[in-house]
Design goal:
about 325 residues; Helix Hairpins; Four Helix Bundle (Hemerythrin (Met), subunit A)
Length: about 325
Amino acid sequence: MNKTYGVAYPKHPWNIVDKSPWPFVSGLSSFFFVLGFVSLLHGYGVLQLDVGLASVLMSFTMWNRDIVREGTFQGKHTSFVKTCLKTGFKYFIVSEFMLFFSFFWAFYHFYLNGSVETAYVYPPMGLGMDDKLPGIMNLILIMSGSIITFSHIHHNLKVNKEHIFPRQLYLLLTIMFGMIFISCQVYEYCHNSFTFSDSTFGSVFYLLTGCHSLHVIVGVSFLIVSWARNLNNHTTFHHNLNYILAIWYWHFVDVIWIFLYLKVYYLFHFIASDQSLKFHYTMYDFSGGSMHFNYFELLLQKSLEKLGKVDSVQ
């Protein structure tokens, strides 16, 4: 330690954090939250789940309060520390991409292999879904990503009175669009004709969309905290880590949704829209004892039918 005028300064740029109870409390709260959720599934009520959720929110809030104190008021987040935090957050986003990649892998595994329970038709016949709401949700989330980019542009034009209001306004609009998206997702869940237990499609569909919705909720919370800190003048042109990381996370949510919309909703509504045609084009491989679909031949046949070049499939 270097001593100047009786004040000790470290010789390194690292932030040596103080002792904190919140990592232990957060882990314990998460355990009780999961335990309460499993108890709810087995019909033991919601009390334990409510206690676990309240404990998780409390520990999350208090831990973030301490981080804001040491970074904003105590000045412990040096340029080197902020660079390390950004690098760690990039690795975190990459790990989240890998999580969703595993979900997409599961979806396409069932899609390409099929199962005898669903007559090798995937998505299974008889499942219904709103064909307009996903498009509206896609538009909402893409617009929110564009709007938060405008907020970032105004922030990069130096933080002064001319640009503070547009930055906050665009950030607030992004939060509103995120809440509308979550409401649309809840509405979709309430009106779908299938549940989590309806074949592997229902399981993977709700796993994918539910996990994405959870990330949207976290992203909206992230943006609300950033918006509130901006109101309290915690964000400057150079001290803006919370604001930048919130924008990165929201763009990650946008990218995942685009993949989800194209690979799941588009597949359901367009490729698998005519289940009878798909069923008639099931081909048997008696040598291997399995079934598969020739989708290129199927789509070619469908296109020729529309042009009147061939007779329709009987």
